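ENTRY TYPE: paired fold submission
RECORD: A
CONTENT: sequence, then structure tokens
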Amino acid sequence: MTTITATATAAPATAAPVTAATAKAGRARTVRRVAWLANALFWTAFAVLEGVNHGWLAVLLAVVFFIAPDLTFLAGARDAHKVEKGQLPARAVPYYNAAHRALVPVALIAIYTVVPFTWAPIFAGMCGWLAHISFDRAFGYGLRTKDGFQRR
């Protein structure tokens, strides 16, 4: 006669225990990411609206400024083979962080609203730039440490 015994498998020793503090931090991170996603959708809609209202040049600048922040990766292309997966070469970090700080396009938009110079494609470009930064934050990509790793 065979007996069947139930055996419990233990969680790996490396798994961190879930505490109230870690659960709360996880919820806060989720709320921040949802807020960044809402922000990204707002700035994307604004860039599209500027493109519809002001033509192809506004669309072009919005798209260029949406893509441009990630071109900072090229500053470290020469050293890309020397770093770990997910790490940005240290040479590119200052450029990447400067292009991915939301304060820069927000400040430019603030300046744009008070100076007498108005050209809608510039505003559309800044909307595209803010949309890019917001999408990055919503999907978990933030600024980098000096070593090129994601900040947590």
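RECORD: B
CONTENT: sequence, then structure tokens
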Amino acid sequence: MVEYRIDRHSGVATYVQIVQQTKQALRLGMLEPGDKLPTAREVVEATAINPNTVLKAYRELEREGLVEARRGLGTFVRKGLTTTPADSPLRLELDDWAERAREAGLDRDDVDALFTAVLEKHFQGEPS
């Protein structure tokens, strides 16, 4: 099950963070079709956000066709976004690179800036 982490200082709307984290879990194969998302109550208890924010995020995911709400049962994944398995060689290489970056004294913001620059160089003009 996915555990949402909310960064109140990111400048990204809370519901958007939930949508993004759900999509990331779908891409990494952490969530698959048929899996149940945490209830709004569970997300509220874990993150101390407004229940309407969770429902807004789930409605957006439903609008995109990724999840479906089943009355009285919860919200379930309809469609996955997995393209690269979590244990792929590329993921392992990236994990090694991140470890080397940390050992070299880079913090999360430094790594984020480097990675974003490389992504922009190699994926110009492609939708994110």
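NOTES ON RECORD B: Strands lie at 67-70, 74-77. The longest strand covers residues 67-70.
STATUS: closed
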